């Protein structure tokens, strides 16, 4: 974190952030399905049944508590194999060695919870290359005996897993090209490719990528639904 990010994103209204996290987390915990749309081309549905969210609200006062700074997100791991549709990444895009801001949306076609096709400008090519390299590294580790038989193939497949849905809730910062900051920006959500937080999709990477101005609709068991966020603004 540099001084610019600290000044914008750390001295914030933590009471409001805590209230936002307390609104969003329980709704995600109750939801069984999520539909996300956004102007950059996102039209995605995913399952959350049996998953529980985590909040990064910046409240580290209790012994043993912790998190990162800047704070400001609620995140959850989608059900394995549940995501279908298209993601248009039009905010920051994390690669293993850098963060990019694409000139035009990077479009990711998702079927059965995996990124099947990635297209767009040069940033799309770099994202695809990162996933392929991680898959090849996993297979090499298996050949070398550093991953058990079959484990390398599992890791290779999971490089394309949709591993996280995160909702940015820090109202005092903006996209600055630093993913630790950018994933907290209010009015965005991020979807990660690779490893998840429930530890049932192991792989070598976790790449957060942002969607601007999402509309997020949650469906609960029994069929009731609520719009959590509309065009990047909390509604529920």
Question: What is the gist of this entry?
Answer:
The chain is of the alpha+beta class and 236 residues long. The protein has 5 helices and 15 strands. It has one domain (3-56, 72-120, 160-234).
- End-to-end Cα distance: 32 Å
Tertiary shape: globular
Largest sheet: 8 strands, antiparallel
What is the mean pLDDT? Answer: 96
Portion of residues in beta strands equals 25-35%
Compute the number of strand runs: 15
State the domain count.
1
Structural class: alpha+beta
Radius of gyration: 17 Å
- Contiguous uncertain segments of 5+ residues: none
Helix content: 10-25%
- H/I helix tally: 5
Strand order of the largest sheet: 9-8-5-2-1-13-14-15
| Helix/strand order, N-terminal first | HHEEEEEEEEEHHEHEEEEE
Structure description:
- By secondary structure, the chain is of the alpha+beta class.
- The protein has one domain (3-56, 72-120, 160-234).
- The chain is 25% helix and 33% strand.
- It contains 5 helices and 15 strands.
- It has helices at 3-9, 14-30, 122-143, 151-158, 179-182; strands spanning 31-37, 43-47, 54-56, 73-76, 84-89, 93-95, 98-100, 106-111, 114-119, 162-168, 188-194, 206-212, 215-220, 225-230, 233-234.
- It has an 8-stranded antiparallel sheet.
- A hairpin with a 5-residue loop joins strand 1 (31-37) and strand 2 (43-47).
- Helix 3 packs antiparallel against helix 4.
- It is globular and about 50 Å long.
- 46% of the residues are buried.
- The model has no long low-confidence stretch (mean pLDDT 96).
């Amino acid at each position: 974190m540099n001084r610019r990010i600290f000044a914008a994103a750390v001295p914030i209204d933590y009471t409001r952030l805590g209230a936002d996290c307390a609104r969003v987390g329980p709704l995600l915990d109750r939801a069984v399905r999520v539909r996300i749309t956004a102007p950059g081309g996102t039209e995605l549905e995913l399952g959350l049944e049996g998953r529980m969210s985590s909040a990064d609200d910046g409240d580290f006062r209790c012994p043993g508590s912790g998190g990162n700074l800047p704070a400001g997100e609620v995140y959850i791991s989608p059900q394995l194999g549940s995501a279908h549709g298209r993601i248009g990444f039009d905010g920051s895009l994390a690669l293993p060695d850098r963060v990019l801001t694409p000139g035009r949306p990077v479009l990711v076609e998702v079927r059965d919870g995996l990124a099947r096709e990635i297209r767009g400008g040069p940033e799309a090519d770099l994202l695809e290359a990162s996933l392929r390299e991680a898959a090849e590294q996993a297979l090499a580790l298996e050949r070398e005996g550093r991953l058990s038989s079959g484990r390398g193939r599992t890791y290779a497949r999971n490089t394309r897993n949709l591993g996280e849905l995160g909702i940015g809730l820090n109202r005092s910062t903006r996209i600055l090209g630093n993913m630790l900051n950018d994933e907290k920006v209010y009015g965005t959500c991020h979807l990660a490719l690779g490893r998840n937080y429930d530890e049932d999709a192991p792989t070598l990477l976790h790449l957060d990528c942002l969607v601007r101005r999402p509309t997020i609709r949650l469906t609960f068991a029994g069929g009731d639904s609520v719009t959590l966020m509309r065009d990047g603004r909390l509604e529920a």
